[in-house]
Amino acid sequence: MRTTRTIVAIAAVSLAAACSGTGGSDDGDAGNYPDDNITFIVPFSAGGPTDTVTRMIAEPMAKELGVKIVVQNKEGAGGTVGAGEVARAKPDGYTVLMHHIGMSTAPALYKNLPYKPLEDFETIGLVTEVPMTIVARKDFAPATLPDLVTYVKANAGKVTLANAGIGAASHLCGLLFQHAAGVKLQEVPYQGTGPALTDLVGGQVDFMCDQTTNTTGQITAGKVKAYAVTTPERVKSLPDLKTTAELGMPQLQVSVWHGLYAPKGTPKAIVEKLSNALKKALANQAVIDQMAKLGTAPVPADDATPQAHRAYLEEQLTTWAKIIADAGVKAT
Ligand code: ASP
Fold first, then answer.
1. What keywords sit in the KW lines (predicted)?
2. What pLDDT, in 10s, does the model give residues 137-183?
3. What is 131-229's CATH number?
4. pLDDT digits over 216-226, tens only?
5. What spacing in Å lies between the alpha carbon of 43 and ligand 1's midpoint?
6. What is the pLDDT of residue 198?
7. Structure pTM?
8. Where are the domains of the chain?
9. Is 168 touching ligand 1 by the criterion CB < 6 Å?
10. Distance (Å, rounded) from C-alpha 185 to C-alpha 16?
11. Which atom of ligand 1 is found nearest the CA of 101?
12. Measured from the CB, is residue 255 less than 6 Å from ligand 1?
């Protein structure tokens, strides 16, 4: 799903990262690790897309590591509350964060972010990259994406756009939509797009962007109206849904990558152990099948590494800082 330019950037920075020895603190070894339950922090609500991806890989990773993995939802402020908590956790491998593209967008959107993505975390590995869809409540008037643009411009004061808080993927996608359409809408923040989608199905909000891992079931069941998918190619699991580019909005392209993080200073041997367990989980056929049904796939094994993840994070921090600045969005 990544562009060639990105892959080249990853390759270049991977090399630099490998040379500078990223992927955990050199002090200490894995010892008996793990000999206790590991907690995976999800910085968004239970039942949402980040939560879904986390639970998909937690079980096979737990099997591989021989301990339980407890998934905890620490939602708030577009994912920054949970991420901040992991940044301050003991670097012993027992607290791990699953985060998404928000790790690379938040620094440009928050003036006082309580962590620094590159300085406060060890990257463990990339997990998956998920397309987004633009969806609306079933009885929302516009029929197509071009209709949606016309409609929201004419009704800007009353249309509501749901998101999972500043810095969340849905917020970012909503910003790009508003920028492309040339309109400013009333945004309704939730703690995650799990509850936002529930409200959308219930008709309490008008529309939003969300990952296919959350919307596929509702789209195929006809419970929401789907306008477009925000990736260059259509998604196999939703073959009739056109892309934003096909519908005249090529500048609205965003897919949501996920990665696992440990607090800075976690011993390298522990980070490697977690990364190897992640790789095994991503090769698990049940995980591959589950992801395919929801419009996504595991990253290639080489990307489920601390080095490739760090390189991608570095590239994404630069990319999104520029996109956000170019869109005229100011940090709050
Ligand atoms: N999809 C959400 C977002 O907008 C996150 C979530 O609830 O998983 O970032």
1. Signal
2. 999 999 999 999 999 999 999 999 999 998 899 999 999 999 899 99
3. 3.40.190.10
4. 999 999 999 99
5. 9
6. 97
7. 0.89
8. 38-130+257-326, 131-229
9. yes
10. 42
11. 9
12. no
In the reported structure, the alpha carbon of residue 144 is separated from the centroid of ligand 1 by a whole-number distance in angstroms of 24
Distance 272 CA to ligand 1 centre (A): 27
Read off φ and ψ for residue 295, nearest 5 degrees: 80, 20
Is the C-beta atom of 165 inside 6 A of ligand 1?
A: no
The alpha carbon of residue 210 and the mean position of all alpha carbons in its chain are separated, in whole angstroms, by 10
38-130+257-326, which class in CATH? Answer: alpha beta
Positive/negative CA dihedral, 266, 267, 268, 274: negative
* Ligand 1 centroid to residue 269 C-alpha, Å: 31
Radius of gyration of the chain (CA): 19
Same fold, 38-130+257-326 and 131-229: yes
Q: Quick one: what percent of the chain has pLDDT higher than 70? A: 92
Residue 214 or residue 15, greater confidence:
214
The CA 186 to ligand 1 mean position distance, Å, reads 18
Contacts of 91 (CB under 8 A, 6+ apart): 25, 122, 262, 263, 264, 265, 266, 267
Q: Is the CB of 196 under 6 A from ligand 1?
A: no
Distances (CA, A) of 55 to 4, 27, 78: 30, 30, 20
